[in-house]
Amino acid sequence: MKKIVIATGILLNLCCYKAQDSVQSRNLQRDIALISSNSSVQEKTPFFKKSWVKKSVAPALLFTAAAATWGEKENIREVRNRYLPNFKMKYDDYLQYAPAVTVYGLKLAGVKGRNNLGRATLSYATSLAIMGILVNSIKYTSKVERPDGSKNNSFPSGHAAMAFTNASFLHKEYGMVNPAYSIGGYSAATLTGLGRNLNNRHWIPDILAGAGIGIISTELGYFFIDKIYKNKGDNLSMLSRIQGNDYPSFLAIKFGSAFGTTNFLKESELDETKQIGFEGGLEGAYFFSKKWGVGGDISFSSFPIKPQRITIDDGLEFGDHSIVTQSMGFLAAGIGPYYSHEFSDKWQLTLKATAGYSATASGKVFVKGDNIDTPDHQLQIARYKPKPAFRWNTGASITYKFNPGLGLTLYSDYNQINSTIRYHFSDDIKESAELDQELNNLIAKEKINYITLGLRLTAYF
């Protein structure tokens, strides 16, 4: 009996020990969980990695660009009138809808996107409602006159807002499936905005602001619908498993300011200062490895030439006159090696060196003064015609990637063109054999060097 009591006591002690051990273990696990919970609460997301910051970068840049170009909008229109005064093509009325039509075509064809048809339509309709409210409330409050003088509802551009809403819709639904969809959508939207300017229906700030409204409207539309569904998309888990190309091949739309490092018409004695203009175009590269690839660009740049003051003094009261030279425009293309280095999954450096040709637009030279009896008080005295010339270009850029397929790039390029310009003078000068022989054989060799600084919207594929 005594042995049984001792055995029972030992057993009870063991049971109590195990129970205490179990309780301690559970308490330890709870404490660890509590510590983990507290640490996760205390951990803060860096400002530039917050979702709303990433989504607001592109619209903020577009609104800033609209404000920055507001004072230059008439000068920019003069560039349009200088190179394409008779442009009339209504493709922008239809191209604005192309990205949205693509989304529904892919859905009906059975291609899986971010959302099913019903939810995608609900997100799209919400985006359109937000865009419509923003555009029309601003249009009929600001009352900005259109460039062609037809109406006072120019700012912002409804076509651009619609085009970029549709492009963002395509990007949201199929950008993760293939970046080519995003590239195509935003390219169509950009061409729509460009068409509004070339057709003389909108100022550049109208288009930039419309683009920003379109992008932010889609972001807000998806934000509200995602809150209702309490997730980020019907098929997002499936799409997140799609692996992209590890090489940094890209296609980009670029726009920036151009700063002359030489006097473009120094030998012609038609300017005395370095010029400041703008550049826009497309750039892309195909990489054969993570570091090296081949790429090129097609770009257009334009530089205004400041009038030169002259005084005619031959005993008559002619007063002060100016020599006015039309702006110089360059359409250039080049190809060459590209080098890429990734600092992280978000930041990427790219270097390049390209060579190619540049075609320079012909222009006119006028003498302008109050005493000249013409409606615009100016008289054409000559026209200039540059020959196509060799161009070489080198540059560096840094890209911040919003996601593996899309990034915003700050770029700087150096361009050099050695241009040969022939001058042809007016018929009045041709009447003098001496002046005709001296002036109409005039050829000037100009060194045209300039640096561009701007932004690219970069899509990776």
* Silhouette: globular
N-to-C series of helices and strands: HHHHHHHHHHEEEEEEEEEEEHHE
CATH architecture of the largest domain: Beta Barrel
Q: What is the percent of helical residues? A: 40-55%
The low-confidence runs, each spanning 5 or more residues with pLDDT under 50, are: 1-12, 14-26, 38-42
Strand content: 25-35%
Strands, count: 12
Task: Please compute the radius of gyration using only Cα atoms.
Answer: 32 Å
Number of domains: 2
Biggest sheet overview = 8 strands, antiparallel, barrel
The first-to-last residue Cα distance is 85 Å
CATH C-level of the largest domain = Mainly Beta
Q: Tell me the strand order in the biggest sheet.
A: 1-2-3-6-7-10-11-12
- Counted by DSSP, the helix tally is 12
Counting helices, strands and paired strands, the structural category is alpha+beta
CATH topology of the largest domain, anyone? Answer: Porin
Mean pLDDT, to the nearest integer, reads: 83
What's the quick description here?
This protein has twelve helices and twelve strands. The chain is an alpha+beta fold.
